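Lab meeting, action items carried over

1. Structure of the six-component assembly. Owner: GW. Status: complete.
Input record:
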Amino acid sequence: MGNRILKKPTAGSERPKRGAPEETRRRLVAAAAEEFNIRGLHGTTADLIAARAGYATGTFYKHFRDKNEVLVAAYEAWVSEEWNAIGREVLGGGEPEAMARRIVALGAELHIRWGGLRRAMFMLVADDAAAQKSYRALQRRQLKIVESLRKQRGEGGGCSREADALVLMTMERAFDAIAQGELRELNLGRTAILERVTALLADALSPDA
Amino acid sequence: MGNRILKKPTAGSERPKRGAPEETRRRLVAAAAEEFNIRGLHGTTADLIAARAGYATGTFYKHFRDKNEVLVAAYEAWVSEEWNAIGREVLGGGEPEAMARRIVALGAELHIRWGGLRRAMFMLVADDAAAQKSYRALQRRQLKIVESLRKQRGEGGGCSREADALVLMTMERAFDAIAQGELRELNLGRTAILERVTALLADALSPDA
Amino acid sequence: MGNRILKKPTAGSERPKRGAPEETRRRLVAAAAEEFNIRGLHGTTADLIAARAGYATGTFYKHFRDKNEVLVAAYEAWVSEEWNAIGREVLGGGEPEAMARRIVALGAELHIRWGGLRRAMFMLVADDAAAQKSYRALQRRQLKIVESLRKQRGEGGGCSREADALVLMTMERAFDAIAQGELRELNLGRTAILERVTALLADALSPDA
Amino acid sequence: MGNRILKKPTAGSERPKRGAPEETRRRLVAAAAEEFNIRGLHGTTADLIAARAGYATGTFYKHFRDKNEVLVAAYEAWVSEEWNAIGREVLGGGEPEAMARRIVALGAELHIRWGGLRRAMFMLVADDAAAQKSYRALQRRQLKIVESLRKQRGEGGGCSREADALVLMTMERAFDAIAQGELRELNLGRTAILERVTALLADALSPDA
DNA sequence: CATGAATGAGCCTTCATTCAT
DNA sequence: AATGAATGAAGGCTCATTCAT
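Predicted assembly:
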């Protein structure tokens, strides 16, 4: 698809010929995020990413070692964005219950919008050791954040890192189930699921958890 | 035309045997399960599966349209096996708590042993519509079983299908985390996680849930 | 297509288990003629031929060295049939003009009915030396027949073998054009073409040609 | 990943050259014409064509969807060449008889040189709908040219399109018979055949035909 | 004689990556 | 820095034919 030599007219003309490398890289990462999100890990090619960003194939490989590398970069960018958004919610403060509700809504929204990207990342992690390492690092950081959050609020105790982890896993699993259309196909109510997830999170955020 | 190159001695197995298609199919499915479990979705080829089962490539294609088809078959076989095992535990009866403990132990064991197969199936489901359909059907059946189980024991109520689903998802997510080495890499205690999962399940199995 | 192992119920039951070998062979040739005629050289497989005749694959190879061999046999049978039919017309006698008209009608009909078989044979002749030899033998015999026919009626002379050959070639080419749908696609009138072919043949059949 | 095996020195040709797609395509078509002419439809593979042109397999698929597509391109190129050559002869003018003689000589020569290519094209046309369409288009154009030629010279009448078509078919059939060695194997004199073909053509080219 | 499961060489095609321009 | 044509290993799959039963 698309690789036949046919001299595409290269769209309009407002492309960045010889711009700042950082800018080029940013465009490529953004294009990659969209492509992976839409076409999945295997459907996305370096050609496609470069083309969407307005560059030629070779340019892509000037900025990234390979397809995997951009995907990791794009995924990391997405995670950062999500955390920033959630961080803002947390800083907003309020009752655990209300905070949980806002966080769940936000998470669900972001996972739905970027479900394909996450799925692609999962698949890469399953195949590629480097990607797995990056992914685990992100998970570790996430756990740490939640941990510090809990400590701020003062906590009960027990094997709480594991409790946090399980809550996070459940949340993500539920979000993914929505994003991948699993709930619809299994005739499960989205609201009911999200209610329960919210309850779990609220519980975890409560000082006396 | 044909025997120009000596065939490798076919490795293990007893022997191909002419005239027993059902047996051949069974061997191919078993071989596929092992290969996918070890090498993953992309590392496994029809050639490899056939060779492990002691057959030639063509034989594989006499029994399955493609790689995807065997993977689905192998996964379905695995799920059946797991349910049968769990079913035996359930029939064993006993307190919810004890039953949950046995089920979780069994599930963890089977997910660890066949983590690669599950991962391969996940990846296929993400790419292949037919596989997704089969997978959802399995999930639906699983949900039904759990539902009937709950009804047998008499239950409290609420949006319980969703509650069941969430428990199942959490269980599987936790098992996968163990199987994929996620817990180890994140420095999370396996026992602590399984304790919590057991608690969740016991709760779900209790009549007054 | 069709090679998946699924234990076809083998149709009814009135098949010839262990019949006379000659009968089996005849059935296979007839089945081959139909299959090649419908599916062409590449679309036809030994499996298909055997199945249509009501036998298993292996039986086919007990009677023929390979696919090519049946095709040649089937084609030879067809040619014989055509010649016999034409021979009957010739024996019917009459004016060259009338005889030509009957022969052309008959030839057109037979070529239309068996156009696919002829096409398959052509393709085989292009690829297989043995088939080519058989085909040339048939052509030689055909030429001889026409030659003797001409001598019977007393003839003029000139380089007449070549003249005969060219008339035969033109006839067959025209018949094939009809059979393959060439005329229709080129918007050429079938009747007009056949008129001219008839004229050519009548001319060739006239004593003073 | 890629250069693990040293590539064969690419045989003849000058050099692949980056950045000249048109040139590459031309080379591939030329190589395809030679390969198909020598090895026939089934003996020719995309690999072989690419190698003969001095390129890698993948390059072939950048320019053509498949084997069929190049064959059609190569055949069309051949037809164009033939018509141009014949066109020059026609422009040369002269008596119908002399013109016919020159055209037949030229046609025979080109068909002998490219008999294998034509045969390959025939076989493709029998199997591939797209190729058949292209082939018919060429035939239609050819008919139109001959028609206009006849009109220029003023003509008698009758169902002349069909007459033209039959002459063309006979010519081609005769040329093919020479090219495929049919005449030799049937002990038919080439000169005698060509004489008759020339007479046919001269007749068709005469104003009062 | 008949069966039909098994064989496996080889074709077709893709796509991640390189490199001459 | 950017280009985009070229690369070629690696799979997927078919189908003519064999042979154990």
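2. GW to write a short summary for the group page. Key points so far: Residues 1-5, 7, 16-21, 24, 55-59, 62 of chain D lie near DNA strand F (CB under 10 Å from a C1'). Residues 67-92 of chain D form the longest helix (26 residues).
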